[in-house]
Automatic annotation (TrEMBL):
Source organism: Hyaloscypha bicolor E
Domain of life from the UniProt record: Eukaryota
Keyword Cytoplasm: no
InterPro entries: GH, Glyco_hydro_3_C_sf, Glyco_hydro_3_N, Glyco_hydro_3_N_sf, NagZ_Beta-hexosaminidase
GO biological process: carbohydrate metabolic process; peptidoglycan turnover
Any one GO MF annotation of this record: hydrolase activity, hydrolyzing O-glycosyl compounds
Domain Glycoside hydrolase family 3 N-terminal: 32-343
A Pfam family it matches: Glyco_hydro_3
Similarity annotation: Belongs to the glycosyl hydrolase 3 family.
Name of the molecule in the record: Glycoside hydrolase family 3 protein
Length: 948
């Protein structure tokens, strides 16, 4: 189905009842179509349905149920199919469970523990293919929350971790996996459920107390990046926000959050979905009828109501009343309708909706998905510590030794066979937090770990003792079993929020230590089967293993890992992994010389990763760059020789690059440059950058057999060719200050940096010269002309060589060699005709864009204001220092702008100007696009730091 827009809308949508029906997202209780859900579809024209564990039995039943829902809609005259969505996050949150056809995969944090973005994509893609097979066309994911207060948040392993860049990478990998399988995606839970304050009862709304500035630096990063990469929909949370600049009772009912923060500030144009308006805190606070009107007024396109038919009817009548009272306009309804229809056009049509492939497809893909599930779980198992070398148990337990398993009383995960069995005889019981997070689960006593005990016993072919523990602490039965056992495995699940588990484990650890001191063998292994934060920083727990969830598949992988069938390679999320490695000591990574044939593809992937995870608005830097941008050696027509040496830290098994450093030497000037140094965002703070920097400086200062008499006297950080990093990026002042401290600690002089700016005019067609500018330029009688090619270029090269650095001279030579797309504007003295200024002018799509990537990256971030004419360039102005320098610079810029307009450029960049020159040009209508601080350091200083 084609996207419907403007006048192309089906005439049926002019009926407001039909249009309003598309703005509701509803569910019901029961595994069959009820009269109530039929009424919502037939009489109220409901357009979207959320299926939960209360609706779904087997995969075959689900396919039949979805087909029946779509058939009802089709027969009722719906122009487009229903949006059918599920929560299928894996780990502990799966709406659909069928052990014959639907595979279990690790949670978001467990998937990130594999350290593989490719695996994250594969898992998401497989999940999406399975739910798509039963007729689902939308998945409520990925979870994009950053656990900035990880230890005490109920979200737990549903989130990737506490590092915003890592959350971005894995969230986008999952999003792409879903989309490539044909599903539309819904990021959650905006603006963040990662650091909430809970005040007590279920009627108290959890609160975000961080400021917008704090959120922008962390929690909002994954949402911002996912939006940039094409996220389809966004769920806005039902939390409060309280800080100096914002006092919001319910985020999803606030235009400050939805319209201003999400749409205006972050640029989201997709479908926004409210949190369920039936949640206690919201319905008691405002009421569903008023809440529905407020949600639509705030900018929500779909209003979620999960269960109660009476409440759903109240919401529908509330929206109608809001329209009748002119609180909500017809135009407002139509805006949301168009967004919803556009979303549906991406994921469904009547042919697909009425004939889901069902079991026939699931049977075909199930074997490969089972293998993927095993591989993912095996890769996620993480051993954080094993001080006593107790693992694998097959090497440390004798056949007659008794193994004791101690497990807490927990709820099984919704995606477990235990839950499926209990669901037939028991009602769901949840804590207030779990109700708020829509997590259905059932108290199961010891049942969820019984199979784990059996598996351990089968694996070792020996005696296993198994009992549970509760908030009653260590009882005599536990003491007796601990005295008997040679090895004890304690399972914990969210011990930071279930403090009895923490106390019990510490007590048993103390007992084992005392008994071991008395000569009795007592090996203690603590296994966290949910949040890895339970004992992550507690060194008294010597052997600590993390599984990230306790599904049957996870427990099977745990057993095999404990007994050495494979060596666990999982890593901890975010700062846990980094702090663990940094605490050991500063790591020294193997740095290798760049090899184009081997590393070209890896560098391309690394640049793309960094570009995706960098904040929006960063126009220069790596935006638009490629591996070829750093390859200068071999370029013909450069005035002075250039020596090029690049370095990488890489994974030799996968060929992935963890970090890259580009260096150049100009022998004729005794000058060496580090033009770029960057590291995979998920591998930062692990000393990769330090290792690369140390190796690069050593290489630059080492004797060069090709130039035996050369002695490098100065090192420069930043370069104009390639024109990627002119120095330390300063657009983000906080990050720039951190980088300055880092480089200062590594030998660079930060006391007198050279400030360089990249400027832009984004909408060139509307630009006009300031009043009086042309008259001022003409008054001083400088002559300006434009040349192409090398004819008449000798004076230009002499001028640039005298007044600028060697990399700028090389850039001019490249421009003069490209007569088709580049030219040089000259400014001549009215006295003797000598050159007083020059600047390079480039057409859109200039060949120089390889080495000046901002020439092609600006259009990607200019919100369309650059037009379709491409980006023109005004590069490397070199102006002699005279009293008229400012007017010469303005004249060169004016000629450059006129040339760009003549070439039909939609926007132009001026790269670069220094210090006070910036203010001269801002008055002409330029804006600052990026700012850098170029640093210098004496070669002797680095030698003194023993880098040689």
């Amino acid at each position: 189905m084609e996207a419907q827009d403007g006048d192309e809308l089906d005439p049926l949508w002019q009926d407001l009842d039909w249009a309003m029906g598309q703005l509701f997202f509803m569910g019901w209780e029961g595994t069959e179509v009820t009269p109530q859900i039929r009424t919502l579809i037939e009489d109220h024209h409901l357009g979207a349905i959320l299926l939960t564990t209360k609706n779904l039995k087997t995969a075959q039943d689900t396919a039949r149920l979805v087909q029946e829902l779509q058939t009802i809609a089709h027969q009722a005259g719906h122009p487009v199919p229903l949006l059918i969505a599920v929560d299928q996050e894996n780990g502990g949150v799966n709406s659909l469970f069928d052990e014959d056809y639907i595979c279990q995969f690790p949670s978001a944090m467990g998937t990130a523990a594999t350290g593989s973005l490719e695996l994250a994509y594969e898992v998401a893609n497989a999940t999406a293919k399975e739910v798509s097979a039963v007729g689902v066309n939308m998945i409520m994911g990925p979870v994009l929350d950053v656990l900035t207060n990880a230890r005490y948040q109920p979200l737990g392993v549903r989130a990737t971790g506490d590092d915003p860049q890592e959350v971005s990478q894995y969230g986008i990998a999952a999003m792409n996996g879903y989309k490539d399988a044909g599903l539309t995606t819904c990021g959650k839970h905006f603006p963040s459920y990662g650091n909430l304050d809970f005040l007590g009862s279920s009627l108290d709304m959890p609160i975000i107390t961080e400021t917008i500035e704090q959120l922008s630096l962390s929690a909002l990063v994954p949402f911002r990046n996912a939006i940039r990469d094409g996220l389809d929909a966004m769920m806005v949370g039902g939390c409060a926000m309280a800080n100096a600049s914002m006092n919001v009772m319910h985020a999803c009912l606030s235009d400050q959050v939805v319209d201003e923060l999400l749409r205006n500030d972050l640029g989201f144009n997709g479908v926004t979905i409210s949190e369920c308006l039936e949640m206690d805190a919201l319905s008691h606070d405002i009421g569903v009828r008023g809440g529905t009107v407020m949600a639509v007024e705030a900018g929500c396109d779909l209003v979620l109501l999960c269960r109660s038919f009476a409440v759903q009817q109240e919401a529908i009548s509330g929206l109608k009343l809001g329209v009748e009272n002119d609180m909500i306009s017809r135009d407002r309804i139509m805006i949301s309708l168009k967004r919803v229809l556009q979303l549906k056009s991406k994921c469904t049509n009547w042919h697909e909706a009425l004939k889901p492939p069902g079991i026939s497809l699931l049977s075909t893909i199930h074997p490969s998905h089972l293998a993927l599930s095993t591989r993912a779980y095996d890769s996620s198992i993480t051993i954080m510590r094993d001080k006593g070398h107790l693992l694998p148990l097959s090497n440390t337990l004798y056949p007659d030794d008794e193994l004791l398993l101690l497990t807490p009383l927990v709820k099984p995960l919704p995606a477990s066979a235990a839950t499926k069995t209990l669901a037939e005889t028991a009602r769901s019981v949840s804590t207030d937090h779990d109700k708020w997070l829509h997590r259905s689960s059932i108290m199961s006593g010891e049942g969820v770990f019984r199979e784990l005990g059996r598996s351990l016993a089968r694996q070792r072919h020996g005696k296993l003792l198994h009992t549970s523990y509760t908030a009653n602490g260590v009882r005599p039965v536990h003491e007796n079993l601990i005295n008997r056992a040679a090895a004890i495995i304690i399972i914990t699940a969210d011990a930071n929020r279930n403090l009895y588990q923490n106390g019990f484990t510490k007590h048993v650890a103390m007992m084992c230590s005392m008994l071991s001191a008395g000569g009795k063998k007592k090996s203690l292994i603590v296994v966290s089967v949910s949040s890895p934060y339970d004992f992550a920083m507690d060194k008294s727990i010597g052997t600590y293993v993390c599984t990230f969830d306790f599904t049957e598949t996870a427990m099977s992988a745990l057993v095999r890992a404990l007994f050495g069938e494979f060596v666990p390679q999982g890593t901890l999320p975010g700062t846990l992994r980094k702090s663990r490695k940094v605490q050991k000591s500063r790591q020294h990574w193997l740095v290798e010389s760049w090899n184009r044939d081997r590393d070209h593809r890896g560098l391309q992937a690394l640049i793309k990763t960094i570009e995706k995870t960098s904040p929006p608005g960063t126009q220069s830097g790596l935006s638009g760059a490629s591996a070829a941008s750093f390859e200068l050696v071999g370029i013909p027509d450069l005035a002075e020789p250039i020596e090029e040496a690049h370095y990488v830290v890489r994974n030799s098994s996968t060929q992935a690059l963890f970090g890259f450093c580009a260096t150049y030497t100009y022998p004729a000037r005794s000058l060496a440059l580090i033009s770029a140094l960057f590291v995979d965002p998920s591998k930062r703070n692990l000393s990769i950058g330090h290792s690369l920097h140390q190796r690069a400086v050593r290489g630059l200062l080492s004797p060069n057999p090709k130039y035996p008499n050369m002695k490098i006297t100065a090192l420069q950080l930043g370069s104009s060719l390639p024109n990627i990093f002119l120095g330390i990026p300063m657009s983000d002042l906080t990050e720039g200050a951190r980088l300055k401290r880092w480089f200062a600690a590594n030998g660079w002089d930060i006391s007198s940096p050279r400030l360089l700016y990249t400027l832009s005019i984004r909408n060139l067609s509307h630009w006009a010269p300031p009043e009086g500018l042309l008259a001022n330029i003409q008054r001083v009688s400088f002559a300006f002309d434009l040349i192409h090619g090398r004819e008449n270029a000798a004076s230009v090269l002499e001028h640039v060589s005298t007044h600028s650095g060697p990399e700028v001279l090389a850039l001019y030579n490249l421009a003069l060699a490209d007569e088709k797309s580049c030219g040089v504007v000259r400014a001549k003295s009215p006295v003797d005709g000598s050159l007083v200024g020059t600047v390079i002018i480039t057409r859109p799509e200039s060949s120089l864009s390889t080495y000046v990537p901002v020439l092609k990256s600006l259009s990607a971030t200019s919100n369309g204001s650059g037009g379709s004419g491409g980006i023109g360039g005004i590069l490397a102005p070199v102006v002699q220092n005279t009293p008229q320098a400012a007017i010469v610079l303005q004249g060169l810029a004016l000629l450059g702008i006129r040339q760009n307009k003549a070439h039909k450029a939609g926007a132009c960049v001026l790269c670069w100007v220094a210090g006070e020159e910036r203010d001269t040009l801002l008055g002409m209508g330029f804006d600052v696009l990026d700012a850098f601080e170029e640093l210098r350091g004496a070669g002797e200083r680095f030698n003194e730091m023993n880098l040689g």
